[in-house]
Amino acid sequence: MLNSDEAFRQVMTWCQALQPAERSIEEALGAILAEDVLADQDLPPFDKALVDGYALNSEEAGLGLRDFQVTQTIRAGRFPTIGLEPGQTARIMTGAPLPMGADSVVMWEQVETIPTEQIRLPFDRHIKAGQNVLPRGREIASGEVILPKLLRLNGAAIGVLGSVGRTRVRIVPQPRIRIVPTGDELVEIDQQPGPAQIRNSNAYVLRSLIEQAGGLPEVLPIAKDDPQSLAESLSAGLYSDILIVTGGVSAGEADLVPDTLASLGVEPVFHKIRLKPGKPLWFGVRHSAEELGQKPIRKVLVFGLPGNPVSVVVNFLLFVKPAILALRGISTEPVAHRTVTLADAVENRDERPSYIPARLSRRHDRMAAEPVSWAGSNDLRGAALADGFILVPGGPCRLAAGSNVSFLPLLP
Ligand code: AMP
Ligand code: MG
């Protein structure tokens, strides 16, 4: 049986960044930029005052002139049409364009105002050319690359796109992910379950985790454990970049998912890994047209997750989330585990490495993980009360309180 590192590597060999596509900048936060973005004009577009004060010609002050006539007031948003003559100055506000003839701004606190509409510079004040002025094009010149290809767009970068007038931009798009819950025992969450039925909570676990990882989830109706119903649902699920099926991948009589996927042309890559919870994980690929030399169909990664809700969470974090990030062009790395201190001793009697839900708290200068009480991989509530999972090596293994452990966070 594969261990989870090997399984991760096998998943990654099938993950390539999606083809770039154009999106509105409102949809681009967190995405990888797929083009060089150029400035459409100089920024700032004019010589700009950085303080409230008086715009003047520093050379005149350098030659000894101290008194200036105030001939105009320039506010931000107005372009001055009249320049300065020798001996003149303009009252100017922060962000306003300098008038012709001025090369510097003196802060208003630093001059004396004298009657009428005149200012006087203190005899010892030196005025430097360019002081308190941001020259045109200092941030970026028209035509220069303002944001480079492959940059991951943060909030400031979305603002920069807006500042150069871009409403749309080429990015690596978000993968579309379809979810097919399977199981004869399932009912939708707004139904009253019968005596042998349970509500379809997995769909909601997955929808949330997919959104958090930057994918676009779409939940399909519950599929029954019969070959016909399953084949219809799974083939609808293949209209996606990633198909996630839950349930039906163990070794039971009703576990028809692997065979049904195979009948739809999905090639199995692996089935079952050394991991608790999450052992029955199934992974396969439906190849693209180029790979098969056939009619145009897109490549689909298919994850068959066991139905147990906590297995769903652990398998998602370890395998599906990295696949989403890889399709988005962001990372092909395994999920980062943190190192934390164990608050209570834990034991793993299973030979498989085990993930145990735990809560984090600050103890002295370190984060300590305390296992929450839970009833195993069916117990979603245990995970709901946890910050993530402690990884306990394959057993029999006992970790003492105070030892360092790897911790898989549930929230990013
Ligand atoms: P399976 O992998 O199909 O054998 O299911 C394992 C366990 O997970 C069973 O107890 C199922 O009832 C439960 N289960 C399966 N699918 C879901 C689902 N969509 N939501 C909640 N629990 C589920
Ligand atoms: Mg089932």
CATH architecture of the largest domain: 3-Layer(aba) Sandwich
CATH superfamily descriptor of the largest domain:
MoaB/Mog-like domain
Number of strands: 29
Strands of the widest sheet, in order across it, are: 8-5-7-6-10-9
The overall average pLDDT, rounded, is: 96
Low-confidence stretches: none
Tell me the strand percentage band. 25-35%
Secondary-structure content class: alpha/beta
Tally of individual helices: 9
Would you kindly provide a written description of the structure presented here, covering whatever features stand out?
With 412 residues, the protein is of the alpha/beta class. It folds into four domains: 4-19 and 173-327, 3-Layer(aba) Sandwich (Molybdenum Cofactor Biosythetic Enzyme, Chain A); 23-43 and 139-171, Molybdopterin biosynthesis moea protein, domain 2, CATH 3.90.105; 48-134, Molybdopterin biosynthesis moeA protein, domain 3, CATH 2.170.190; 338-409, Beta Barrel (Beta-clip), CATH 2.40.340.10. Helices cover 20% and strands 29% of the residues. The chain has nine helices and 29 strands. The chain has helices at residues 4-13, 58-62, 155-163, 202-212, 227-237, 257-263, 289-292, 309-327, 380-384, and strands at residues 2-3, 21-24, 37-38, 48-49, 53-56, 67-74, 88-92, 104-107, 112-114, 118-120, 133-134, 145-147, 168-171, 176-181, 186-187, 198-199, 216-219, 242-246, 267-271, 273-274, 282-286, 300-305, 338-342, 346-348, 354-363, 366-371, 388-392, 397-399, 404-409. It has a six-stranded mixed beta sheet. It has a six-stranded mixed beta sheet with strand order 17-14-18-22-21-19, sandwiched between helices. A five-stranded mixed beta barrel has the order 23-26-25-27-29. A hairpin with a 2-residue loop joins strand 25 and strand 26 (366-371). Helix 5 (227-237) crosses helix 6. It starts with a strand and ends with a strand. Magnesium ion is lined by residues 183, 247-248, 254, 307.
